[in-house]
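Design a sequence for this backbone.
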C-alpha cells in the first residue's frame, strides 16, 4: 500500500484488529520510508448488479431510486419505515444472492411489486399501474380483483 504522506510503496502493518461488529478490519500501518503512521480499513465489497434498462442501457443499481419509488407508492399509507427498510433489504439480498453482474430492470420491478403486495395492497395497485403502464380501467379492475381474492387456506 502506498504511503499517503510521501507516496512510497512500502508500508508495514503495525497492528490489526477486527471491529466490534466483525465486518471490517482496522490496520495501523507505518511507512518504511518516512516513518509516519496511518490507519486503513478493510471490508467486504458486496456489489449489487448493474441494471439493464428497457432501452438496453446499463446503470449502477441505485438504492435511493428504489427507496423513492417505494415511498411514492406508499404515500399516505399506514406502513412504517421499518417495514419498508426490511422490504428494501430483502430486495437487495435477492439481487446479491442471484450472483449476477447484471439484471433487467423488469426483474427488479417484479421484486418491488412482490414486496408491495405484502406491505400494502393500495400501494401495490399504485405501483403496478405505473410500472405496467395501465391504459384503461379494465387493467385496474383486473389487478384489483387479483389483490381482492381471499388467500387460500388449506384444512386437513
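Sequence:
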Amino acid at each position: 500500500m502506498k504511503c499517503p504522506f510521501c507516496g512510497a510503496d512500502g508500508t508495514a502493518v503495525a497492528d490489526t484488529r477486527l471491529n466490534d461488529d466483525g465486518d471490517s478490519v482496522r490496520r495501523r500501518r507505518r511507512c518504511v520510508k518516512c516513518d509516519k503512521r496511518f490507519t486503513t480499513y478493510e471490508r467486504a465489497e458486496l456489489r449489487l448488479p448493474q441494471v439493464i434498462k428497457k432501452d438496453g442501457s446499463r446503470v449502477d443499481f441505485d438504492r435511493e431510486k428504489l427507496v423513492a419509488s417505494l415511498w411514492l407508492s406508499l404515500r399516505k399509507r399506514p406502513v412504517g419505515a421499518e417495514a419498508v427498510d426490511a422490504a428494501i433489504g430483502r430486495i437487495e439480498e435477492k439481487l446479491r444472492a442471484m450472483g449476477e453482474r447484471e439484471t433487467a430492470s423488469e426483474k427488479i420491478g417484479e421484486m418491488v411489486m412482490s414486496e408491495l403486495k405484502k406491505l400494502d395492497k393500495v400501494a401495490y395497485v399504485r405501483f403496478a399501474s405505473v410500472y405496467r403502464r395501465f391504459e384503461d380501467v379494465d387493467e385496474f379492475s383486473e389487478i384489483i380483483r387479483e389483490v381482492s381474492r381471499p388467500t387460500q387456506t388449506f384444512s386437513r
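The first helix runs from residue 63 to 73.
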